[in-house]
Design a protein that fits this description.
Blueprint lengths: L9 E5 L9 E6 L5 E3 L2 E3 L9 E6 L10 E4 L27 E4 L23
Antiparallel strand pairs: 1-6, 1-7, 2-5, 3-4
Length: 125
């Protein structure tokens, strides 16, 4: 959910049905110990310090793969829900939703400020 109107760095989400499983590759993300903001140095207390395992998506091999959608100019009263992972392997069931923020020539205003909330949901069939 955006805290302020998001007029740049839009959220993009890929239709999981358009990304073949073989296009997903494990990737390790390393975070710096410090970040720079407004010309000064500060410690980001919330950034993970240990490497994090994630997925990278390789480039599509044709025009029918990787159907991306984006949410433009999100307002603070709007939220976007997406599935990060599902262990259930079933035809037609989205197991994950590749997503990212991106910039383009129409961006304007302040950088995106948003809240991300992750939930672990368990249930029996």
């Amino acid at each position: 959910q955006s805290i302020t109107p998001a007029t740049r760095d839009a959220l993009a989400v890929c239709d999981a049905r358009s990304v073949p499983e073989e296009h997903l590759h494990e990737q390790t993300i390393y975070f710096p110990e410090t970040s720079r903001r407004d010309g000064g140095s500060w410690q980001d207390a919330y950034a993970p310090k240990a490497p994090v395992e994630a997925w990278a998506v390789e480039a599509p091999s044709g025009p029918d793969e990787h159907k991306w959608w984006y949410v433009s100019e999100m307002k603070p009263h709007e939220a976007f829900l997406l599935k990060i992972f599902d262990s259930k392997m079933e035809d037609g069931l989205a197991r994950r939703a590749p997503h990212t923020a991106f910039s383009w020539e129409g961006d304007y205003g302040l950088p995106r400020h948003s809240i991300e909330c992750r939930c672990l949901v368990l249930w029996e069939d």
